[in-house]
C-alpha cells in the first residue's frame, strides 16, 4: 500500500495547481505568462512553473484525474526514485518544449502526465520481468487514448509537451531500468527455506521431530 509520504507528494502538487487556479479566479488575473515560451529568456522560467498553471477548469480537472492515477502509480511501483523521476520529467520535458516547440505559452501538467505514462510503460518493457510487465499492460490499457495527443490534432493543445514528456519518460525508463520495483521487492521478501528443493517438504519444528527407529536388528 501507499505510505502517507508517497500520497502527500502528488496531493501537494495537485493542491498547488488548484490554489493557483482559485487565485486567478479570485483576483481576476491570468498566470499563463508564467508558462514556457520557447526560446524566450523570460519564457525559460516557465520550465519551473508550467505544470501548475492551467487554462481553465476543464483543463485542470482533466489533468488532476490523470496525474492522480499515474502519480500514485509511480510512487507505488518505484517508491525509491519516484520523486526524482517526477522532478526530472518536469524539468527536462519543459526544457525540450522551450528549445523546440512553436512560439506560444505552453502550460499544464500534461507533459508530466505523458512522461509518467511512458516511464512506467517502458520500464516494464526494459526490465523484461513478467511481474514488471504488468505495469506496462496496465498503463497501455488505461491510457491508450493518449496516443492521439502526441500529434497536432486540436487547436490550443500543446502536443509538443505531450511528445517531450513521452520522450523524456522513455529515456528515464532506460536509464533506471535496473531499479527495484514493488513487484521485484515482494519477490525478494519470499523466504528461501529450502522447503521444496529436494522433492520433499521438511515439516520439522521445535514441537515436532522425526525419530528414526532401526527395526532391522
UniProtKB/TrEMBL annotation:
InterPro entries to which the protein is assigned, alphabetical: Peptidase_S54_rhomboid_dom, Rhomboid-like_sf, Rhomboid_protease_S54
Keyword Transmembrane helix belongs to the record: yes
Single annotated GO MF: serine-type endopeptidase activity
Subcellular location: Membrane
Chain ranges of the Peptidase S54 rhomboid domain: 45-176
One GO CC term on file: membrane
A Pfam family reported for this protein in Swiss-Prot or TrEMBL: Rhomboid
Coiled coil regions in record: none
Keyword Membrane: yes
Keywords assigned: Membrane, Transmembrane, Transmembrane helix
Membrane topology: Multi-pass membrane protein
Full protein name: Peptidase S54 rhomboid domain-containing protein
Organism from which the protein derives: Flammeovirga pacifica
